[in-house]
Amino acid sequence: MVGWFGALQSQDHHPAKRAIGQRLAPGVTDADLDRAFDDGVILRTHVLRPTWHFVAPAHLRRLLELTAPRVHACNAYAYRRGELDGPLLGRTTDLIADAVAGGNHLTRAEIAELLAKHGILAEGSRLGHILIPTELERVLQRPASHVQTKGTAGGPTAGSPRPLARSRPCPGWRPPHRP
Predict the structure, then answer these.
(1) What pLDDT does residue 143 have?
(2) Which of 20, 72, 115, 167 has a beta carbon 3.0–4.6 Å from 120's, enabling a disulfide?
(3) How many CB atoms lie within 10 A of CB 121?
(4) Strand partners, 178
(5) pTM here?
(6) Residues 6+ away with beta carbon under 8 Å from 45
(7) Cβ-count burial 42-77 (b if 16+ within 10 Å, e if not)
(8) Are strands 7-9 and 43-45 parallel, antiparallel or unpaired?
(9) Is the dihedral of CA 86, 129, 48, 178 positive or negative?
(10) Which of 93, 110, 112 minimizes the C-alpha distance to 160?
């Protein structure tokens, strides 16, 4: 069902999960949905803008190719406020990519600890703004059931990562016509 829609906003995990359940066949239980999430049938990522969305893995790569430049642009102020420039975000993305290589899974706390060992402060919203580029660059993908308190991260599941330096819109993008 998520694949049919392309993506579904899921900032509030449990109500978004319930919305999926209401649209499926009778008899689908909460445990069935959790199993689908844990199996990676549905991912939770920042694919359309800087808010959470459920997305099917088969659609993620193409959606990110289309939307990642815009999500980065929307996050520009937060990156500046958190003193997260391109070189630092490139470094954090590389460190995290190395740590999750081979299917390793890390919690948010473990990622923060890893970055701290390399002299990078990663707490609170700053950690979140470090993690968003790793999602946009297909380094981390999260099963949808792994909400912030449980949050594991592993990857890559949506194709190999690409360089972080994509600050311009994707080819073919045109600004909307404004009369």
Answers:
(1) 53
(2) 115
(3) 13
(4) none
(5) 0.71
(6) 52, 53, 55, 60, 135, 141, 142
(7) bbbbbbbeeebbbbbbebbbebbeebbbbbbebbee
(8) unpaired
(9) negative
(10) 93
Give how far Cα 39 sits from Cα of 29, 34, 43, 49, 149, Å: 15, 8, 9, 24, 19
How is the chain split into domains, by residue range? 2-153
Measured CA distances, 93 to 13, 18, 32, 45 (Å): 25, 33, 33, 16
Q: What is the pLDDT of residues 27-73, one digit of tens each?
A: 888 888 888 888 888 888 888 878 888 888 888 888 888 888 888 88
Tokens found for residue 127: 């950690």
What distance in Å separates the CA atoms of residue 38 and residue 133, rounded to the nearest whole number? 22
The number of helices, as runs of H, and strands, as runs of E, in the chain is 7, 5
Q: Are 141 and 155 in contact (CB under 8 A)?
A: yes
Beta bridge partners of 9: 53
